[in-house]
Amino acid sequence: MAWFKKTKKPIVTSAKEKPSRVPEGLWVKCPGCQQAIYNKDLAANLSVCPKCSHHFRIGAAERLRMLFDGDWVEHDKDLVSTDPLRFTDTKPYRARLKASVESTGLKDAIITATGTIEGLRAIVASMEYGFIGGSMGVVVGEKITRAIERAIDERVPIVIVCCSGGARMMEGARSLMQMAKISGALARLDRARLPYIAVLTDPTTGGVTASFAMLGDLNIAEPKAQIGFAGPRVIEQTIRQKLPEGFQRSEFLLEKGMLDLIVDRRELKQVIANALGFMGAVKAPAPAAVEEAVATEPAPQA
Amino acid sequence: MPDTLDFEEPIAALLKEIDTLNAQPATDARNREIEALQRRIQTVRAELYRSLTPWQRVQVARHPNRPGLEFFIERLFTGFTELHGDRRFADDHAIMTGFAEYRGDPVLVVGHVKGAGGDTKDKIFRNFGYARPEGYRKALRAMRLAEKFSRPIVVFVDTPAAYPGIESEERGVAEAIAVNLRDMMVLDTPIVVIVSGEGGSGGALGIAVGDRVLMQEFAIYSVIPPEGCAAILWRDAAKKVEAAEALKITAPDLLDAAIIDAIVPEPPGGAHTNPAAAAALVDEALARTLADVCAVTSVARHDARYRKFRSMGRLGIDFVDGE
User: Fold this and answer.
1) Which residues of B touch A165 (CB under 8 A)?
2) Above 60 in pLDDT, residue B322?
3) What is the number of structural domains in chain B?
């Protein structure tokens, strides 16, 4: 039967879709408007193009700097995957982990921390796309679950900033189960009547979308972020046609009723603070955070 | 569709011999020879199935004659009344639900349906078991009904994946699955899950949160289909055999990882060679498991269900704290 079947083409990422993280150097070409931007201007503008408002992808620590008022206390920062499947594809998973640890300075694809947002004490979990595509394995699942449980114990709100290609294949079904684990913890948070805000940034796909990204009391997205469950190429292969322009972008999801709002990064912190205010978070001195505040900013990244 | 899978070549050869004998006029000697060959097939099959590779298990799990939800309903339950629709958009045909009696007690049955083997029309009607958002929402709606009337839920999982199409995304398949994961965790009624064929990623998990997760011997449960994993990580879909191996998707692997609670044995040669025997084995495991989860209080059950999934990803085994 197989002789007339088309062999499946491998999934190739085109240059156009390469991550638009701010590259090094003095000048950057904006993928949105093709103009050259002075790198310092871009950094001063929260990595949003001053000309066309293209949102460059940012790292987990940069996100925390943007959302928190000042220092933060990081949690569970030394959790590391043991590579339980001894997974090897074209290279060993261990080598991929090692390379990501070196390039990001993190031990897995997420930072969880407590700090204040406009004076409101909150826990923020921030995903790092630079670490194996922000994929969710056991460590990401565990750190988010612990962060949610901590939010319940301390009765503080939680914000999760999603930036992920989905579940991490190299940890197999264990990665899949993190979806249930985190969602279950969110059920408890819900019952404790504590706020959870999901922030969906480019990209938020696969198992991350099909679990905590879609379960916020508010689901807030950055403009033009890719958000979806199945990968665009998988869908194209299924329906055998090109996908419409703007499919699986924030604006598409808003129109389809899946998002509460789309917020420009430069206004994100204020919108989150307002929402937390609506949800009953109160400004209070956070003595614990002040006392424990060590220098938590990670070393500058390579 | 051939009667045998590619790795069953020795069986195919024996079947051919039988066919040749059958084509000739029957004599006592020939009949005895045929019987001997049939016995030989049993032995060879049992032998083959004792040491299947992960990819071979994928093939068995996807076998078109593998007993599915409709067969289990017919064999294990009485008085099944199907409930349709999510009361929002449509009735999804890839997920079926309804109430029935199991050994005399009312239960809710939920599961994927791929469509009957060899019946293309039915397969298309069932969308080959690829559920759309409506399916997950229908399942949850029915499960809430079971909760309201304190009836246990029995779930059969058998899907390649949630349907990856435009309308799935438009109507929020990710949201539908996410809500099921969250709400099934706190649903106040016993839930027993049986992975009976393909446990295809989020599309499977979306109805598979429960107090016990059982898995048939040759079923698979994976974060991504081996073909998809091969295409992404190896950049070559032909590496599906390697991917199936690496992903650890077999029942024994998942039992080791504490992702499932027990393996339900299949008849030698797989469920598709003897569906009735396979159903009887599921029946036996289900009766025992259901009795167990129904025996505890609602609070204890809720805590245990949470702890079960909470402990997936074990400190000191799957991850460590510090180097």
Assistant:
1) none
2) yes
3) 2
